[in-house]
Amino acid sequence: MKNIYYLIYLLFFKNTAEDYRPYALFFPKIRQFLVSHYLQSCGKKLRVKSGAEISPNSIVGEDSELGTRCLIQANVTIGNNVIMGPDVKIYSRNHKIDRIDIPIQKQGKDYLKTKVGNDVWIGANVIITAGVNIGNHCVLAAGAVVVKDIKDYSIVGGCPAKLIKMR
């Protein structure tokens, strides 16, 4: 049944109107229903913005939001009370590059778990690379490229993301 919800979401409701549009009607509620029913695990009060793409093999906590046009791969865990701006990318796989005698595209991929803690604000256009753990109560500034674990209460920004200050 989860695959049917996923297919219906992708084919018919993924790109429906945002909740702030007067013609949004019931589309935000349908997106929420479908996504919450196809995820591996999902807390209450999920908000799903238009164009959000999240793997069925992901976990989202309570009262969290999937930003407009976000891309979230499999093996990603998102905590409670997480908000994200538009165009956020959260990855969980990388190409292998260990061997120089084989083209990169033929070396396969590494699959890693990526985790976002509770009460995190992920700004617009943030990229979180595979295997990174974001602590609780963090702020990731718009456009940040997060390549290393982030400690609790950190505010980070830049490319690669660096500590700006602690909350």
Description:
The chain is of the alpha/beta class. It has a single domain (2-166), classed as 3 Solenoid (UDP N-Acetylglucosamine Acyltransferase, domain 1), CATH 2.160.10.10. The protein has two helices and 19 strands. A five-stranded parallel β-sheet has the order 1-4-7-12-15, with helices on one face. A hairpin with a 4-residue loop joins β18 (154-157) and β19 (162-166). The mean pLDDT is 96.
How many structural domains in the coordinates? 1
Coarse morphology: globular
Structural class: alpha/beta
Number of helices: 2
Beta fraction of the residues? 25-35%
Strand order of the largest sheet: 1-4-7-12-15
Radius of gyration: 16 Å
CATH architecture: 3 Solenoid
CATH topology: UDP N-Acetylglucosamine Acyltransferase, domain 1
Mean pLDDT: 96
CATH superfamily, called what? Answer: Hexapeptide repeat proteins
- How much helical structure, as a percent, in the residues? 10-25%
Q: List how many beta strands DSSP finds.
A: 19
Report low-confidence residues grouped into runs of 5 or more. none
Q: What is the chain-wise order of helices and strands?
A: HHEEEEEEEEEEEEEEEEEEE
Largest sheet: 5 strands, parallel
Q: For the record, what CATH class applies?
A: Mainly Beta
Report how far apart the termini are. Answer: 43 Å
